[in-house]
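Quick one:
INPUT:
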């Protein structure tokens, strides 16, 4: 699984909790072919997080020739980490009987994520869950905490 090369300790712990909760992680499945814009999905029925590493690399212009470019690597890694965290939030929501998580209201979504939010809503049809996932994807320790709270 190539995506593992891009993760930090917190994301590795998130994976451990997700897997302990009965979910699996797959990479570059046919679901990723829906659009180059998507870097992650949660298949609820199958209990699978799909990470689209190829899409993340394509978005940042990551190629073998540019592999040594630290900036491109870091941007690609950030896309993959955020996608994992985002989908992990959805796992925590599922562990919470399909409800949004009870977190402090002080967190706001970055306005630059509106296009992505609208695309996610078109697929899932669940605005509040998607909004919460976009807010928390920038907070890895909080994602880990919420997974532990609801899934373990």
């Amino acid at each position: 699984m190539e995506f593992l090369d891009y993760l930090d300790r917190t994301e590795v712990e998130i994976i451990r909790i997700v897997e302990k909760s009965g979910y699996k992680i797959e990479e570059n499945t046919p679901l990723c072919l829906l659009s180059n814009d998507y870097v992650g999905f949660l298949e609820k029925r199958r209990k699978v997080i799909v990470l689209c590493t190829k899409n993340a690399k394509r978005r940042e212009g990551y190629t073998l020739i540019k592999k040594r470019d630290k900036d491109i690597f870091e941007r690609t890694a950030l896309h993959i980490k955020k996608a994992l965290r985002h989908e992990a939030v959805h796992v925590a929501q599922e562990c919470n009987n399909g409800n949004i998580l009870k977190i402090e209201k002080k967190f706001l979504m970055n306005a630059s994520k509106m296009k992505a939010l609208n695309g996610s809503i078109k697929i899932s049809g669940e605005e509040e869950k998607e909004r919460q996932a976009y807010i928390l994807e920038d907070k890895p320790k909080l994602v880990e905490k919420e997974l532990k709270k609801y899934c373990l």
